[in-house]
Amino acid sequence: MKLVIDPGHGGSDSGAVGNGLQEKQVVLQIARRVRDILSAGYVVDILMTRDSDIFIPLSERARMANSFGANYFFSVHINSGGGSGYEDYIYIGVSGTSTAAKKQRQVHAAVVPVLQKYGLKDRGTKQADYAVLRETSMDAILTEAAFIDTTSDAGLLKNPQFIEDISQAYANGIAAVMGLQAKAPAVVYIETGGLGEEGVAEAHRFMMSKGWYGQILYPGGGKTPFLRTGGLTPSMRAEAEAWLKSLGWYYVVKA
Ligand SMILES: [Zn+2]
C-alpha cells in the first residue's frame, strides 16, 4: 500500500502563525512522527511531499501523489482564524457514501479520544474545495488540528505529549483506512554481558511478570547465559528497553 503524507506550507510559505508558532514547522513535526510510527509498525510505502522547510506548490503536491500511485493522501494542517478545536476535510465534490467520506469518518473516529483527553472541541467532518483534495486522483483528507492563533490551542501544539498523541491517532486512523498489515514484531535479544546467571534470572523474572516470552539460552554450549525474548509489540519493546536502560544493562536489539 502506498501513502502520501503532505505537511502543508513550507519555505517562504509559513502558513498560519501565532503564539510564537509557525504552521509549517508544527505540521512537519507531526507528519514526520506519523511517518515514523507507520514505518515502524506497518508494511507501507510512504512518500512525503516535503521532508524539509521548502516551498512546494499545491498542484505539485497532488501531481507527486498521482504519479506515485498513492492509495491514500493525508494532508496535515493547523487551523487559524480565531476558533478552537479539530476538524478534517474531504473534497466537496464527493458524496457522503463515497469511500473518501467513509475513510474520513474512520480518521475522525481515531482522533476523537485525543480531543476528549485534552478537552479540544470536535468541529466535525467537513468538505471543501481545496486544491490538494480536488487534484489528487485517490481518496484524500486534510486535517486541521487546533488553532495556532488561539492561546489555549497553541498551548497544546507546544505540548510534546499532544503532538505525540495526535500523531499516534493519525497513524491509527491511516492504518485502519488503508487496512495496513502490521509488521512482524521485533525480536529483542538481550545479552547479559558480565552479569551472569543472577542478572539473567532477574531479567527473566521481569519478562515473566509482564507475560512476555522469555528464554534463557547458553549459546554454543558455553557457560555464559543470555536471555532472548520475541513477539514484542513496539510499545512492549519500548518498555523492555526502558527497563534495561534503567538498570544500565547491555543489550542488543535485532529485528
Ligand atoms: Zn494550512
What does this structure look like?
The chain is of the alpha/beta class and 255 residues long. It has 2 domains: 2-182, Aminopeptidase; 186-254, 2-Layer Sandwich (Alpha-Beta Plaits), CATH 3.30.70. β2 (17-18) and β3 (21-22) form a beta hairpin. 43% of the residues lie in helices and 25% in strands. The chain has helices at 23-41, 58-68, 99-118, 131-135, 151-157, 160-178, 196-209, 234-247, and strands at 2-7, 17-18, 21-22, 42-43, 45-48, 72-79, 86-91, 122-128, 140-147, 181-182, 186-190, 215-217, 226-232, 252-254.
Which key features would you list for this structure?
Alpha-Beta Plaits; binds zinc ion; Aminopeptidase; alpha/beta; 255 residues; 2 domains; single chain; six-stranded mixed β-sheet; four-stranded antiparallel β-sheet
Mean pLDDT: 91
Q: Please state the second-level CATH architecture of the largest domain.
A: 3-Layer(aba) Sandwich
Please work out how many helical segments DSSP would assign. Answer: 8
Small-molecule binders here are: zinc ion
Structural class: alpha/beta
Largest sheet, in brief, is: 6 strands, mixed
Query: Which strand order does the major sheet show?
Result: 5-1-6-9-7-8
Q: What is the rounded distance between the termini?
A: 22 Å
Q: Count all strands and give the number.
A: 14
Q: What is the CATH class designation of the largest domain?
A: Alpha Beta
Task: Please indicate the count of domains.
Answer: 2
| CATH homologous superfamily classification of the largest domain | Zn-dependent exopeptidases
CATH topology-level name of the largest domain: Aminopeptidase
Per DSSP, what share of the residues sits in E-state strands of 2 or more residues? 25-35%
